[in-house]
């Protein structure tokens, strides 16, 4: 697949002619000086310019380039022999000798490219690139994986549409790369504090991770954490706190956690003055949640108290309770909050647990409901019943076997790991408080 320079010299010439034609400008051989025909400023906005194409080997580490076409060479100023065998990220460096990505290249897009390549899916997006001479370019990039006969990805094709970047490269203020407070790097590239309390010997006192540059910390470590962890790690020290407040970093973290689509939708909210940091915090801590009165249809009848209710996804389920004259109830009601007009409905079940109050109702695996204990007609109970809300004909089934918890009421319970019911506290008839008990349920 690799194409050497001289092999496509003819194609190069043809392409050059077409481009000259679209540009309406002839460059003399002298003007070209034997170099690539397009200089910065000459090549933007030709609607019919053929696509720049790069092919990388997906079976080799780091996707080395095995082919670039002449259009790529013309737009980027790099000759094929200079780029074959390299990863295409050099286009994110402002000059051929730069050691790292330019600060204005959006790290969110880069991490999205990385994710798509890791997951073997296509990518489409826009990012800042640079010609060999340092001219900024907007690259509308598409990446498409190519599968071999056995389904493995053997190559990735990149198609670039380059256009002029109206970017002021002198006003770099991208904070992830702008080194944070009081930081400088010594000749070995290690972090050394200019001032402040960290005046001790570097080797003894400074935590290894803090010797990394802001860029490495932000892009290689913080950006891979969950939104909640980013919020927590900010309390480690001032420097990390400052980095975690960076909007680009926050956006990247949100994108990793919730995907590109959701992040895109959330981005609209950040434009309404809610920064990424605040948004992520509200989403992970629910601190912005507030009560809203909901009026629903239907009714739980007959009326009762001491019932138990729990959520099964967006459905609220209620079981049993104490009716008039201390009547133990055994009916099941559901309120589907996803419905256009939510209303309480009695679930028609084939059989029910004995009526009770002071019991607990918990949800298991999204649609299974578990009733435990409480007070029934015969006194305290320690039975366990399970019902699949999504079954065609929902039926309460008793779960037997193992050592059940002691009979009790006024306890609390929850389910963990999809198979365990944890029953805590509660009391006996004599008012004795009971201990926590875990029982395994295999519906
Ligand atoms: C076939 C192919 C073409 C690519 N073309 C470009 C490109 O034109 N510009 C660019 O900035 N990155 C391009 N990339 C993406 C980079 O090579 C690299 O995968 C990206 O920067 C993410 O990885 P990194 O975080 O390790 O740099 C291309 C990748 C592949 C596989």
UniProtKB/TrEMBL annotation:
Q: Which GO terms describe its biological process?
A: flower development; response to blue light; rhythmic process
Q: Where in the cell is it found?
A: Nucleus
What the entry lists under InterPro entries is as follows: F-box-like_dom_sf, F-box_dom, Kelch-typ_b-propeller, PAC, PAS, PAS-like_dom_sf
Q: What pathway is this protein said to act in by its record?
A: Protein modification; protein ubiquitination
The record's keywords, sorted A to Z, are: Biological rhythms, Chromophore, Flavoprotein, Flowering, FMN, Kelch repeat, Nucleus, Photoreceptor protein, Receptor, Repeat, Sensory transduction, Ubl conjugation pathway
Q: What is its main location?
A: nucleus
Q: Does the keyword Aminoacyl-tRNA synthetase apply?
A: no
**Record-level Gene Ontology MF annotations:** photoreceptor activity
What GO cellular-component annotations does this UniProt entry give?
nucleus
Q: Where is the PAS domain?
A: 49-96
SMART domains for this protein: PAC
The family line of this record is: Belongs to the ADAGIO family.
- Name of this protein: PAS domain-containing protein
């Amino acid at each position: 697949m690799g194409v050497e320079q001289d092999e496509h010299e003819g194609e190069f010439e043809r392409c050059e002619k077409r481009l000259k034609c679209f540009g309406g400008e002839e460059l003399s051989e002298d003007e070209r000086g034997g170099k690539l025909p397009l200089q910065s400023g000459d090549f933007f906005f030709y609607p019919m310019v053929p696509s720049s194409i790069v092919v990388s080997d997906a079976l080799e580490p780091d996707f080395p380039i095995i082919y670039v076409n002449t259009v790529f060479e013309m737009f980027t100023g790099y000759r094929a022999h200079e780029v074959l065998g390299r990863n295409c990220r050099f286009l994110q460096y402002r000059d051929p000798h730069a050691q790292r990505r330019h600060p204005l290249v959006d790290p969110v897009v880069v991490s999205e490219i990385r994710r798509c390549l890791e997951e073997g899916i296509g990518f489409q997006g826009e990012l800042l690139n640079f010609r060999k001479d340092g001219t900024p370019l907007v690259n509308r990039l598409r990446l498409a994986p190519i599968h071999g006969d056995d389904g493995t990805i053997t190559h990735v094709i990149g198609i670039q549409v380059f256009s002029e970047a109206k970017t002021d490269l002198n006003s770099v203020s991208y904070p992830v790369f702008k080194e944070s407070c009081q930081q400088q790097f010594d000749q070995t590239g290690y972090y050394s504090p200019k001032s402040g309390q960290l005046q001790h010997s570097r080797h003894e006192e400074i935590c290894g991770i803090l010797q990394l540059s802001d860029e490495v910390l932000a892009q290689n470590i913080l950006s891979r954490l969950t939104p909640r962890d980013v919020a927590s790690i900010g309390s480690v020290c001032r420097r990390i706190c400052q980095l975690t407040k960076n909007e680009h970093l926050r956006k990247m973290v949100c994108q990793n956690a919730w995907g590109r689509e959701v992040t895109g939708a959330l981005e609209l909210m950040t434009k309404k003055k809610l920064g990424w940091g605040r948004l992520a915090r509200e989403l992970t801590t629910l601190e912005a949640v507030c009560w809203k009165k909901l009026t629903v249809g239907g009714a739980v009848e007959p009326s009762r108290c001491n019932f138990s209710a729990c959520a099964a996804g967006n459905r609220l389920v209620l079981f049993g309770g104490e009716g008039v004259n201390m009547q133990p109830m055994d009916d099941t009601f559901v309120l589907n909050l996803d419905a256009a007009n939510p209303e309480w409905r009695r679930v028609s079940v084939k059989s029910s647990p004995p009526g009770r109050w002071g019991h607990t109702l918990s949800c298991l695996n999204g649609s299974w409901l578990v009733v435990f204990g409480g007070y029934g007609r015969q006194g305290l109970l320690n039975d366990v019943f399970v019902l699949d809300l999504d079954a065609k004909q929902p039926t309460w089934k008793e779960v037997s076997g193992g050592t059940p918890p002691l009979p009790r009421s006024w306890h609390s319970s929850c389910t963990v790991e999809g198979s365990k019911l944890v029953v805590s506290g509660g009391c006996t008839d004599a008012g004795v408080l009971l201990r926590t008990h875990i029982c395994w349920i295999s519906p």
